[in-house]
Amino acid sequence: MAITAVGSSYNTAQGASPEKTLGKDDFLNLLVTQLRYQNPLTPLNNTEFTAQLAQFSSLEQLNNMNMQLHDLLLFQNSLQNTLTSTLIGRKVKISGNEVYLKDNSEISYALQENVSKVKISVYNSSGELVKEVNLGQQTSGEKSYVWDGTDNSGNHLPEGHYQIKVEAFNDSGDPVNVSTMVYGTVTGITFENNITYLIIDNKTKIQLSDIKEIQGGA
């Protein structure tokens, strides 16, 4: 009689139950039971018995490894949560096109090539264009623009969230790919499905991997 340390399934009167996996204690009990009830005239083959002991040893090592990995994951999550809490109130740069205007707002964008024109458009929460800025020639690379919070008439707009659109064009007037990044303040932390999210300006939810830059306190 051989023992195999694999999952097994069984049926009940109500139907099939979920798969049940043998642990190392179950495996050892089966091995002892096998030795107790073996036929004295045909005892367990030494090679087979040695193989089963090796299988039990492997099972125990895998179980210990799983426990160590679980503890490591708990430690990593705890460390991440601790480090994340230090970001509260910090200013970060993230990929996106939404800014929170208070006094002014910094917009960052990256150009893939030299361009002849850059246009920045700002929209309010109703989707209305409130500000348009036309910039001249610019070389490739990461650039920044500080919006003073005024509209096209020079009036300072109310505090709140605004959408940013950055467009770039080459000498032929064809659009050039632009990636937009914005700055915001970390105002909260939330945990969902074992994933840590940062709340930016009380609205935008991002993961830690979305952060491009961390600055000092706001």
What would your notes on this structure say?
The protein is α+β, with helices and mostly antiparallel strands and 218 residues long. It has 2 domains: 23-85; 90-217, Immunoglobulin-like, CATH 2.60.40.4070. Helices cover 24% and strands 39% of the residues. The radius of gyration is 31 Å and the shape is elongated. It starts with 10 loop residues before the first strand and ends with a strand.
Task: Pick out its properties.
218 residues; alpha+beta; Immunoglobulin-like; 2 domains; seven-stranded antiparallel β-sheet; five-stranded antiparallel β-sheet; 2 helices; 14 strands; elongated; disordered N terminus
Give the amount of beta strand, in percent.
35-45%
- Describe the biggest sheet? 7 strands, antiparallel
CATH topology of the largest domain: Immunoglobulin-like
* CATH hierarchy class name of the largest domain: Mainly Beta
- Order of helical and strand elements: EEHHEEEEEEEEEEEE
Shape: elongated
CATH architecture of the largest domain: Sandwich
Number of H- or I-type helical stretches: 2
Poorly predicted runs: 1-15
Question: Based on the structure, what is the oligomeric state of the protein chains?
Answer: single chain
> Helix fraction?
10-25%
Q: In total, how many domains does the architecture comprise?
A: 2
Tell me the number of strands: 14
Radius of gyration: 31 Å
- Kindly name the structural category: alpha+beta
Roughly how many Å apart are the termini?
71 Å
Mean pLDDT: 78
